[in-house]
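User: Some background: our group keeps a shared notebook of sequences we're curious about, and every so often someone picks one and asks for a predicted structure to add to the entry. Today it's my turn. The entry only has the sequence so far, pasted here. Could you supply the structure so I can complete it?
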Amino acid sequence: MLRVRQDRRLRVRGLAATRASRWLALGSLLATATVRAEVRQEAAPAPARVPIAANFSSLELATAGVALVAGGTLMLFGQRIFGSPTPSLGPPQPGSFDRTWSDRLHLDDGSGHHFLWRAPDIGGFFVLPYLPAIAYAIDAATTARGGTPRLFDDPNADHRFFAYGEALGWTLLVAGVTKVVVGRERPYATLGHPELAGPSNEVDVSFFSAHAAIMFAAASFVALDTSRRLDAGPLAAASPLRRAVLGTVVPYLVAFGTASVVAVSRIIDQQHWPSDVLVGGLVGGGIAHLAYLTHFDQNGQPRGGRAASVRLVPTPTGVALVGLLP
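Assistant: Of course. Here's the predicted structure to add to the notebook entry:
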């Protein structure tokens, strides 16, 4: 009788041990699978290096370079070369959107002081738009020498450099041509604020704001690039709310907020009507989005052989879009 009880106890203990071992084995398998998944996620392969020729044609790079040089020349010396244009857009009527907001935002007391000591005016055209290009160029030069890019950890920074230059070049060219062809009197002349007057040959080149155009081109490119790369990289496993806030809202808020300060300063200083600023922002932002989406996918990586066929090409009467969006 004693032996039977002992045998039963041994069998029960053996069965329990077997079940426990099975549960332990299952737990270890699940833990191993989780660890491997985490390791695979952390050790995701770095973006592959894509040759420039797979994303940019020689003709595209050449025309973008010409646009950059020609646009910059027109912006700096257009009125000296072609003279002041004859205004084809009349002054806004009293009570209109332009007149109302120009009066509301005019803060000068007659002393000729500019908004924030002209920091947005100077920095928004001569400094801020070129900082991303410098950053892309630094990483591109580091990669070309066989080193590891430090600023963005991006082996394809040269693609961003050329696409960004393309966006700025076409923005400057469109703005420069428009200022030479379309004339509009600046607000300080129409509203009688001679203390805010600039050079006499620039009084009729209010339309459209080149400051707003180039700043929103830079802001659009940087915000779009940052948002897509965050979503595909550091925020890939984050919650939808965190991805929306950190991956979309914050980049666009910072970039567009900076551009808006520059744009609004041009209205405060009576250099542009509000509609000049709005049109400039739409032109610059549209060109930058087109340049970026043509060359980069939803993860912010170069399209390579899958590049979209859209190209901006010069024509005898201006520029034209050729091809289709991806």
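Suggested note for the entry: Residues 1-18, 20-44 have pLDDT under 50 and may be disordered. The longest strand covers residues 311-315.
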